[in-house]
Amino acid sequence: MAIRTILRDGDPVLKKRCHPVTRFDRRLGDLLDDMKETLGQAHGLGLAAPQVGILRRAVVVVTDLDSNEMLELVNPEILDAEGEETGWEGCLSVPGLWGLVTRPAWVRVRAQDRNGDWFEAEGEGVTARCFCHELAHLDGHLYTELCDRLYTPEEVDRMEAEAEAAEAAEAEAAAQAAAEPETEGAARPDGQAEEDGQP
Ligand SMILES: [Zn+2]
Question: pTM of the predicted model, to two decimals?
C-alpha cells in the first residue's frame, strides 16, 4: 500500500469524466488499497480515483464515522434518493474551505466490489452526502459548483455558534410562551389573567 498524492482544485484531471472499470485485477485492488490508506491519512470521509490522478470510476467512502469503516464502490450509480439536507461540505482537493450544499437526505447506490460483484448500499445524512459528493467527482464535478461561496473554518465556527445561540434563544422564547398562558389561564379562566397578573 502507498499514500498517493491528492490533486488540488485547478488540476484539469478533476474536471474530466472517468471511464468505467472493466478489469477487476490486482491493479484495481492496489488502487483501492492505496485510496483507503490515502483517505485514512488525510482524515477525509471519501476519496474518488480522479483525486489521485486515475480516471476510473472508483471511490471509497467512510460509512461509519466511529470505526472509520470504508466502503469501496466500483462503477457506482445512484439508484434512488429521498429528502433534502443542507449541510457543510469539504473536499480533500479543496483543502481548508467549506461550503453549504443541499444533498438528498438518503440515497441507495449500486456498485461493484473489487471482484466485479454487484451490490447495493444505502446511506443517510453525512453518508448520503459522501456518496453524492464522490460520485460527482467521477463526472468531473466538484461540490464548489453547488455553493454560492466558500467559508474558512473560522467562519464556519462563527456561523455555527451564531446558529446555536439563535436556536437557544428561540427555544427559550418558545418555552416561555408555552409556560405563561398555562399558569395564568389556570389561575384566571375568565381571561383577565394578563391584565391582573402583571404588576
Ligand atoms: Zn471531493
Answer: 0.84
